[in-house]
Amino acid sequence: MRELEKQLEPWIRSGRSDLDTAALLINEARLTEGLFFCLLAVEKALIAHAVRLTGQTPARSSNVLELLNLTHIRVGEKDSQLLEILLDCEVALRYPVEDDDITTVNQAFEYLDRTRELLLWLERTL
């Protein structure tokens, strides 16, 4: 295995694991937490792209928007909307509000599927 592939593999593996965790949480009706793990999965795929591009792991405080800029990856409107929803879940977990119903179960499963598609695309474009 080439050196660069060795550096990328942990990020890809961890992102896939986060997506599996997201599915488990959503299946248990822990929607916001599940969607947050969707965000983590995308973030790790973007970190793999950043490592591939720069040869270095970005700062630990990076977020998906910073990583998109760093990697020059352009996502379509549908994926951009998905990322906004996932980022809202991150905020809701950090700063709980009285009405924290961000989504319905059906929407959460749809977002999970869309995240899976985005993650596969990001992996294929590495």
Quick recap of the structure?
This protein is mainly α. Helix content is 75%, strand content 0%. The protein has a single domain, classed as Four Helix Bundle (Hemerythrin (Met), subunit A), CATH 1.20.120.
SSE layout and pairings?
Elements lengths: L2 H25 L3 H24 L9 H8 L5 H18 L10 H20 L2
Distance between the termini: 15 Å
Tell how many strands the DSSP assignment holds: 0
- CATH fold-level topology: Four Helix Bundle (Hemerythrin (Met), subunit A)
Global Rg: 14 Å
Total tally of structural domains: 1
CATH architecture: Up-down Bundle
Instruction: Please state the average pLDDT score.
Output: 93
In terms of structural class, how would the helical and strand content be classed?
mainly alpha
List the total number of helices. Answer: 5
CATH superfamily: Nucleotidyltransferases  domain 2
What is the global morphology? globular
The amount of helix comes to over 70%
Give the percentage of residues in beta strands: under 5%
Which CATH first-tier class would you pick?
Mainly Alpha
The main pleated sheet reads as: none
